Model the fold of this input.
Amino acid sequence: MNKLFKVISLSLFILIFLTGCVDYKIEMGINSDKSMDFKWNVGIDLAKMSSIMGEDIDTSALRESTNDLLNEEEKSNLEARGYKVNEVVAPDKKNIQITVTKKFSNIDDIAIKDDLQVDLANFTKKDFPDKFFKVEKGLFKNKYIAYIKLDEDLLDSKATEEEIEAYADYFDMQFIVKLPHKLVSSNATTVDNEGKTLTWDILKMDDNIVKYEFALTNPNFFYFIIGVVIIILLIIFLAIKNNRRMQLEKIKEPEFKIKEEDETKETIPLNDEKVAPVLENTDSNDEVNK
Done:
Protein backbone atom coordinates (compact mmCIF):
# COMPACT_ATOMS: atom_id res chain seq x y z
CA MET A 1 0.00 0.00 0.00
CA ASN A 2 2.98 2.30 0.51
CA LYS A 3 3.61 2.13 -3.23
CA LEU A 4 -0.04 2.83 -3.83
CA PHE A 5 0.01 5.97 -1.73
CA LYS A 6 3.12 7.22 -3.49
CA VAL A 7 1.70 6.51 -6.95
CA ILE A 8 -1.60 8.19 -6.16
CA SER A 9 0.08 11.26 -4.75
CA LEU A 10 2.86 11.32 -7.38
CA SER A 11 2.45 14.35 -5.57
CA LEU A 12 -1.08 15.69 -5.80
CA PHE A 13 0.40 18.00 -8.38
CA ILE A 14 -0.29 15.30 -11.00
CA LEU A 15 -3.84 14.86 -9.72
CA ILE A 16 -4.54 18.57 -9.85
CA PHE A 17 -2.51 19.73 -12.81
CA LEU A 18 -3.53 16.81 -15.01
CA THR A 19 -6.88 16.34 -13.21
CA GLY A 20 -6.22 12.62 -13.02
CA CYS A 21 -9.62 11.51 -11.72
CA VAL A 22 -9.04 9.26 -8.72
CA ASP A 23 -11.49 7.41 -6.50
CA TYR A 24 -9.78 6.26 -3.31
CA LYS A 25 -11.86 4.89 -0.43
CA ILE A 26 -11.38 2.80 2.65
CA GLU A 27 -14.64 1.63 4.22
CA MET A 28 -15.21 -0.08 7.54
CA GLY A 29 -18.80 -1.20 8.04
CA ILE A 30 -19.44 -2.36 11.60
CA ASN A 31 -22.67 -4.27 12.19
CA SER A 32 -24.80 -4.76 15.30
CA ASP A 33 -23.81 -8.44 15.49
CA LYS A 34 -20.19 -7.24 15.89
CA SER A 35 -19.14 -8.34 12.40
CA MET A 36 -17.22 -5.91 10.19
CA ASP A 37 -17.02 -5.46 6.42
CA PHE A 38 -13.70 -4.04 5.25
CA LYS A 39 -13.30 -2.57 1.77
CA TRP A 40 -10.41 -0.76 0.18
CA ASN A 41 -11.05 0.58 -3.32
CA VAL A 42 -8.83 2.52 -5.71
CA GLY A 43 -9.94 3.64 -9.13
CA ILE A 44 -8.06 5.80 -11.60
CA ASP A 45 -9.81 7.05 -14.73
CA LEU A 46 -7.22 8.31 -17.18
CA ALA A 47 -9.74 8.48 -20.03
CA LYS A 48 -11.79 11.03 -18.10
CA MET A 49 -8.64 13.01 -17.49
CA SER A 50 -8.04 13.31 -21.23
CA SER A 51 -11.66 14.32 -21.77
CA ILE A 52 -11.42 17.07 -19.17
CA MET A 53 -8.18 18.40 -20.65
CA GLY A 54 -9.73 18.36 -24.13
CA GLU A 55 -6.69 16.73 -25.67
CA ASP A 56 -4.86 13.44 -25.78
CA ILE A 57 -2.27 13.19 -23.05
CA ASP A 58 0.67 10.86 -23.04
CA THR A 59 0.03 9.06 -19.79
CA SER A 60 1.96 5.90 -20.56
CA ALA A 61 4.29 6.38 -17.61
CA LEU A 62 1.38 6.92 -15.26
CA ARG A 63 -0.45 3.92 -16.72
CA GLU A 64 2.56 1.71 -16.13
CA SER A 65 2.81 2.89 -12.53
CA THR A 66 -0.88 2.54 -11.74
CA ASN A 67 -1.03 -0.86 -13.44
CA ASP A 68 1.35 -2.09 -10.78
CA LEU A 69 -0.33 -0.50 -7.76
CA LEU A 70 -0.60 -3.92 -6.20
CA ASN A 71 2.19 -6.31 -7.16
CA GLU A 72 1.92 -10.09 -7.04
CA GLU A 73 3.70 -10.39 -3.70
CA GLU A 74 1.38 -7.88 -2.04
CA LYS A 75 -1.64 -9.57 -3.58
CA SER A 76 -0.43 -12.93 -2.31
CA ASN A 77 0.10 -11.50 1.17
CA LEU A 78 -3.45 -10.16 1.29
CA GLU A 79 -4.99 -13.37 0.00
CA ALA A 80 -3.02 -15.41 2.53
CA ARG A 81 -4.60 -13.27 5.26
CA GLY A 82 -8.10 -13.98 3.94
CA TYR A 83 -8.69 -10.90 1.79
CA LYS A 84 -10.28 -11.02 -1.65
CA VAL A 85 -8.41 -9.02 -4.26
CA ASN A 86 -10.05 -7.93 -7.50
CA GLU A 87 -8.09 -5.94 -10.07
CA VAL A 88 -9.68 -4.76 -13.30
CA VAL A 89 -7.70 -2.95 -15.99
CA ALA A 90 -9.40 -1.63 -19.10
CA PRO A 91 -7.94 -2.84 -22.43
CA ASP A 92 -6.58 0.62 -23.16
CA LYS A 93 -5.19 0.78 -19.59
CA LYS A 94 -6.93 4.11 -19.08
CA ASN A 95 -9.22 2.86 -16.34
CA ILE A 96 -7.92 0.86 -13.40
CA GLN A 97 -9.95 -0.49 -10.47
CA ILE A 98 -8.51 -2.36 -7.50
CA THR A 99 -10.77 -3.66 -4.73
CA VAL A 100 -9.69 -5.47 -1.57
CA THR A 101 -12.42 -6.85 0.70
CA LYS A 102 -12.81 -9.03 3.77
CA LYS A 103 -15.61 -9.81 6.24
CA PHE A 104 -14.58 -10.20 9.87
CA SER A 105 -17.09 -12.28 11.84
CA ASN A 106 -16.37 -10.59 15.19
CA ILE A 107 -14.47 -7.36 15.83
CA ASP A 108 -13.33 -8.75 19.16
CA ASP A 109 -11.01 -10.95 17.09
CA ILE A 110 -9.36 -7.84 15.62
CA ALA A 111 -9.15 -5.88 18.88
CA ILE A 112 -6.68 -5.87 21.76
CA LYS A 113 -6.78 -4.50 25.30
CA ASP A 114 -3.63 -2.37 24.95
CA ASP A 115 -3.25 0.97 23.18
CA LEU A 116 -3.02 0.45 19.44
CA GLN A 117 -1.91 2.59 16.51
CA VAL A 118 -2.65 1.02 13.12
CA ASP A 119 -0.23 1.99 10.34
CA LEU A 120 -1.92 1.39 6.99
CA ALA A 121 1.37 1.90 5.19
CA ASN A 122 2.10 -1.72 6.18
CA PHE A 123 -1.30 -3.07 5.18
CA THR A 124 -0.07 -5.19 2.25
CA LYS A 125 2.75 -6.78 4.21
CA LYS A 126 2.61 -10.45 5.16
CA ASP A 127 3.06 -9.82 8.88
CA PHE A 128 0.40 -7.10 9.19
CA PRO A 129 -1.47 -8.20 12.34
CA ASP A 130 -5.02 -7.25 11.21
CA LYS A 131 -5.77 -5.63 14.56
CA PHE A 132 -7.77 -2.42 14.21
CA PHE A 133 -9.20 -1.57 17.64
CA LYS A 134 -8.44 -1.19 21.29
CA VAL A 135 -11.29 -2.68 23.32
CA GLU A 136 -12.39 -1.74 26.83
CA LYS A 137 -14.75 -4.48 27.96
CA GLY A 138 -17.62 -3.80 30.34
CA LEU A 139 -20.50 -5.81 31.80
CA PHE A 140 -23.15 -4.19 29.61
CA LYS A 141 -21.13 -2.65 26.76
CA ASN A 142 -17.73 -2.86 25.12
CA LYS A 143 -16.01 0.34 24.04
CA TYR A 144 -13.86 0.28 20.89
CA ILE A 145 -11.21 2.85 20.03
CA ALA A 146 -9.66 3.18 16.57
CA TYR A 147 -6.43 5.12 15.98
CA ILE A 148 -5.43 4.65 12.33
CA LYS A 149 -2.47 6.28 10.68
CA LEU A 150 -2.60 6.94 6.96
CA ASP A 151 0.59 6.94 4.95
CA GLU A 152 2.24 10.36 5.18
CA ASP A 153 2.94 10.36 1.44
CA LEU A 154 -0.82 10.45 0.84
CA LEU A 155 -0.96 13.94 2.32
CA ASP A 156 2.35 15.14 0.95
CA SER A 157 1.29 17.87 -1.43
CA LYS A 158 2.17 21.46 -2.25
CA ALA A 159 -1.33 22.10 -3.53
CA THR A 160 -3.17 24.90 -1.83
CA GLU A 161 -6.63 24.54 -0.29
CA GLU A 162 -8.07 26.68 -3.09
CA GLU A 163 -6.57 24.40 -5.73
CA ILE A 164 -7.91 21.28 -4.01
CA GLU A 165 -11.41 22.77 -3.81
CA ALA A 166 -11.28 23.83 -7.45
CA TYR A 167 -10.61 20.27 -8.60
CA ALA A 168 -12.56 18.46 -5.88
CA ASP A 169 -15.03 17.12 -8.44
CA TYR A 170 -12.27 15.26 -10.25
CA PHE A 171 -11.03 13.08 -7.42
CA ASP A 172 -12.53 11.58 -4.28
CA MET A 173 -10.32 10.35 -1.44
CA GLN A 174 -12.20 9.27 1.66
CA PHE A 175 -12.09 7.10 4.75
CA ILE A 176 -15.63 5.99 5.67
CA VAL A 177 -16.94 4.26 8.79
CA LYS A 178 -20.51 3.01 9.20
CA LEU A 179 -21.70 2.19 12.73
CA PRO A 180 -24.87 0.45 13.98
CA HIS A 181 -25.24 3.00 16.78
CA LYS A 182 -24.29 6.60 17.41
CA LEU A 183 -20.57 7.15 17.87
CA VAL A 184 -18.92 8.20 21.13
CA SER A 185 -16.39 10.58 19.55
CA SER A 186 -14.31 11.09 16.40
CA ASN A 187 -12.23 13.54 14.40
CA ALA A 188 -14.22 12.87 11.22
CA THR A 189 -14.63 15.61 8.63
CA THR A 190 -18.38 15.02 8.51
CA VAL A 191 -20.83 13.00 10.61
CA ASP A 192 -24.17 11.92 9.13
CA ASN A 193 -27.04 9.51 9.75
CA GLU A 194 -27.49 10.59 13.38
CA GLY A 195 -23.87 9.96 14.25
CA LYS A 196 -23.65 6.55 12.59
CA THR A 197 -21.82 7.45 9.36
CA LEU A 198 -18.37 9.03 9.65
CA THR A 199 -16.43 10.42 6.71
CA TRP A 200 -12.87 11.71 6.57
CA ASP A 201 -12.06 13.80 3.50
CA ILE A 202 -8.40 12.87 3.26
CA LEU A 203 -7.45 15.94 1.24
CA LYS A 204 -8.87 18.23 3.93
CA MET A 205 -7.36 16.50 6.97
CA ASP A 206 -5.00 18.51 9.14
CA ASP A 207 -2.98 15.37 9.90
CA ASN A 208 -2.89 11.76 8.75
CA ILE A 209 -4.71 10.27 11.77
CA VAL A 210 -8.19 8.76 11.78
CA LYS A 211 -9.69 8.52 15.28
CA TYR A 212 -13.10 7.33 16.41
CA GLU A 213 -14.75 5.62 19.36
CA PHE A 214 -17.98 3.65 19.59
CA ALA A 215 -19.69 1.18 21.90
CA LEU A 216 -21.54 -2.06 21.30
CA THR A 217 -23.76 -3.95 23.71
CA ASN A 218 -22.03 -7.02 25.07
CA PRO A 219 -23.98 -10.07 23.79
CA ASN A 220 -22.82 -12.08 26.81
CA PHE A 221 -24.92 -9.74 28.94
CA PHE A 222 -28.03 -10.70 26.98
CA TYR A 223 -27.20 -14.38 27.40
CA PHE A 224 -26.77 -13.80 31.13
CA ILE A 225 -30.15 -12.04 31.39
CA ILE A 226 -31.89 -14.79 29.39
CA GLY A 227 -30.30 -17.43 31.63
CA VAL A 228 -31.44 -15.63 34.80
CA VAL A 229 -34.99 -15.27 33.45
CA ILE A 230 -35.15 -18.96 32.57
CA ILE A 231 -33.93 -19.96 36.05
CA ILE A 232 -36.47 -17.66 37.74
CA LEU A 233 -39.33 -19.05 35.63
CA LEU A 234 -38.21 -22.59 36.41
CA ILE A 235 -38.14 -21.86 40.14
CA ILE A 236 -41.62 -20.31 39.98
CA PHE A 237 -42.97 -23.31 38.04
CA LEU A 238 -41.52 -25.81 40.50
CA ALA A 239 -42.81 -23.80 43.46
CA ILE A 240 -46.36 -23.69 42.02
CA LYS A 241 -46.27 -27.39 41.22
CA ASN A 242 -45.04 -28.29 44.71
CA ASN A 243 -47.69 -26.06 46.35
CA ARG A 244 -50.50 -27.73 44.40
CA ARG A 245 -49.22 -31.18 45.35
CA MET A 246 -49.20 -30.26 49.04
CA GLN A 247 -52.74 -28.90 48.83
CA LEU A 248 -54.01 -32.10 47.22
CA GLU A 249 -52.39 -34.18 49.95
CA LYS A 250 -54.11 -32.14 52.66
CA ILE A 251 -57.52 -32.63 51.00
CA LYS A 252 -57.14 -36.42 50.69
CA GLU A 253 -55.63 -37.08 54.16
CA PRO A 254 -58.94 -36.90 56.29
CA GLU A 255 -60.71 -39.36 53.97
CA PHE A 256 -57.94 -41.85 54.52
CA LYS A 257 -58.33 -41.52 58.32
CA ILE A 258 -62.13 -42.02 58.20
CA LYS A 259 -61.76 -45.15 56.14
CA GLU A 260 -59.13 -46.49 58.53
CA GLU A 261 -61.43 -45.88 61.54
CA ASP A 262 -64.38 -47.63 59.84
CA GLU A 263 -62.27 -50.60 58.98
CA THR A 264 -61.05 -50.79 62.59
CA LYS A 265 -64.61 -50.83 63.99
CA GLU A 266 -65.72 -53.59 61.70
CA THR A 267 -62.79 -55.90 62.24
CA ILE A 268 -61.78 -55.43 65.90
CA PRO A 269 -64.22 -56.81 68.66
CA LEU A 270 -64.93 -54.86 71.89
CA ASN A 271 -63.50 -57.66 74.13
CA ASP A 272 -62.22 -61.19 73.97
CA GLU A 273 -65.43 -62.86 75.30
CA LYS A 274 -67.39 -64.97 72.89
CA VAL A 275 -71.04 -64.03 72.53
CA ALA A 276 -73.38 -67.02 72.54
CA PRO A 277 -76.03 -66.98 69.89
CA VAL A 278 -79.65 -66.54 71.05
CA LEU A 279 -81.91 -69.37 70.02
CA GLU A 280 -85.60 -68.76 69.62
CA ASN A 281 -88.02 -71.38 71.06
CA THR A 282 -90.92 -71.10 68.71
CA ASP A 283 -92.91 -73.96 70.32
CA SER A 284 -92.95 -72.43 73.83
CA ASN A 285 -94.04 -69.13 72.48
CA ASP A 286 -96.90 -70.70 70.69
CA GLU A 287 -98.16 -72.46 73.88
CA VAL A 288 -98.07 -69.28 75.89
CA ASN A 289 -100.07 -67.49 73.33
CA LYS A 290 -102.68 -70.20 73.48
Q: What stands out?
A: The mean pLDDT is 76. Residues 7 and 66 are 7 Å apart (CA to CA). Residues 220-256 form one domain.
